[in-house]
Amino acid sequence: MARSRGRFVRQFLAILTMKPRDEGKERPGRHFDASTAQSGGKPLPVLAVLLTGTVMLGAAGGWLVGLRSDPSVPTVATISQEDLPAAIATLAPGAQQTARSDPRECRFPMGFITVVTPGNPAGGTVSFRTSKYQSPPFHVTDKPQKIAIPLPVPPETGGVDLLSVDGNVTGLLVSLSPTVRMEPINGVATVKVRWLPRPPCRA
User: Fold this and answer.
1) What are 88-138's pLDDT values in tens digits?
2) CB–CB of 168/183 below 8 Å?
3) Disulfide-capable partner of 155 in 46, 83, 137, 198 (CB 3.0 to 4.6 Å)?
4) CA angle 191, 192, 193 (to 5 degrees)
């Protein structure tokens, strides 16, 4: 009997001193050092790089959207359908040919600017350009003129581009929204402008 009791006591003590199988492992709710944690077998630095890249792409996209909606960037006006024939006549010869090759005159999207030199009746000769277009020269005076400019951005989305004027004239006003004063006294003046999206041509 005493021998059986001794064996029972030893077994009981052995059970009390045994280490649980999950001892040393983190359990839910416990604090642990995030710098040594792993998720799905990927070290945390890799996840941090991926997260940083996602944040940077999101920020870049937000910057582009913000630029398109920034009210401080003047907008180029859209040409109405009835003004298209007169607008085409102000284009460079190659652009005129392209615009007139479409019988509906909608596959060559354009905007327009109105230019004038108030208080300077003599005016001067200037030309306008974007990243994809160079206008013919125009003699601008104190009498407003409308000049067509092809869209330099995808018409489906619109976007921002630079509008430059080359020449030598004082007091030149370019009617955008809002109006911008551009004086290419040293040969060139440039402003950032927004081009509105255009609806696609109907089939």
Assistant:
1) 999 999 999 999 887 666 778 999 999 999 999 999 999 999 999 999 999
2) no
3) 198
4) 110
